């Protein structure tokens, strides 16, 4: 399967990429690692006239320590994120989610920012971004703005990134003293999760003091499980303490029904995985 | 047309290509390197795996223009001076193939795995090869071949 013909430009700076985007507008599509876009183009589900490749912009790659946060360049490949010592130390939840994202070949090529900007609700990075309170740095012709994770995911495959803007980096606040994990349920190797749960929990003296939970593939976007978060506060970090709160995991969700399972099955999974993830994150 | 220059299996090549040309098409149709095969054509099966600047990628899911300036190694570039690469030799020794169609991708991904993890456990091998499908379901001997290539375990 071959994509429809397109013209191609590979700018070497964010400024040049923004200029290309301004020039070609609706007829252009940005390619990052291309691991989601190229299958779409090959199946001709989309046929842009221009492809703007961010792969030659070195400033979009790399991970740095920025005091109270680590900053991941949008074009940093998953494999680099997953083996980075700063990520391991300050954002272990990201490392955990990346570890089993797709397969090794896709992790070599696919990028952190590309996957988030693609905003597949079954993607592995949205729920951790919500649970960690990530911030998305977006460049446009008027400068740079920052969007909170809670405001980033708008709808199915739709984010707060404007048509004339580019995601440049993602800031992950360091959550010192929090435990975190990602519980993912798949039936087939290297496939998207049927449901997954990202949990971050701060335990104080055996009691859950704070919690942030993100859900994968339980609606048209990654979702915060706020009802679970509220119900967890003040509970003992034990199986009994967490069980009742985890029952709220389905509040406000609208999971899809497909060949992998119907919505009821996903609701069941969300409850079970939330309980497991919170307990693991709490070290219980 | 876009001009690309890259190194493939040690040789410098330069060509004008349509931007939509996939790397696997370029390798097979322009360079005649048909050792790299197209299996599923949907980026699932991994049969088309090659190394791009030293790490494994699915060449049906990379544009040739994206490989401009890069170094590509295919299954045809693994053997040196007429000697099979140790992973190729291990696949032969352990009969790590049945019909053989997935084999080029399996070997390229196995080489990548051993580059980063020279002594993988059986579980690490299976996880490391999760992006490569064998429709003959001949996975056991493939895993044994990787163990053999890493100096662990017996032959099949």
Report on this model:
The complex is a heterodimer of chains A (284) and B (156). Chain A has 284 residues and is of the alpha+beta class. Chain A has two domains: 1-43 and 64-175, Uridine Diphospho-n-acetylenolpyruvylglucosamine Reductase, domain 3, CATH 3.30.465; 179-281, CO dehydrogenase flavoprotein, C-terminal domain (Enolase-like, domain 1, 2-Layer Sandwich). Chain A has twelve helices and 14 strands. Chain A has helices spanning 14-24, 37-42, 78-82, 85-90, 92-99, 104-109, 112-118, 126-132, 149-152, 226-232, 239-246, 263-281, and strands at 7-9, 28-31, 50-53, 63-65, 69-73, 135-140, 143-148, 153-155, 158-159, 166-173, 179-185, 195-204, 207-216, 223-224. In chain A, strands 4-5-10-6-7 form a five-stranded antiparallel sheet. A four-stranded antiparallel sheet of chain A has the order 11-12-13-14, sandwiched between helices. In chain A, a hairpin with a 6-residue loop joins strand 13 (207-216) and strand 14 (223-224). Chain A is globular. Chain A starts with 6 loop residues before the first strand and ends with a helix. Chain B starts with a strand and ends in a 7-residue tail after the last helix. Chain B is globular. Chain B has helices spanning 23-30, 86-93, 103-116, 122-128, 139-149; strands spanning 2-8, 11-17, 49-52, 55-58, 71-73. A five-stranded mixed sheet of chain B has the order 2-1-5-3-4, sandwiched between helices. Chain B has five helices and five strands; from the N terminus they run E-E-H-E-E-E-H-H-H-H. Chain B has 156 residues and is α+β, with helices and mostly antiparallel strands. Chain B has two domains: 2-77, Beta-grasp domain (Ubiquitin-like (UB roll), Roll), CATH 3.10.20.30; 86-149, [2Fe-2S]-binding domain (DNA polymerase, domain 1), CATH 1.10.150.120. The chains are: A alpha+beta (284), B alpha+beta (156). The interface between A and B is medium-sized, with 31 and 32 residues.
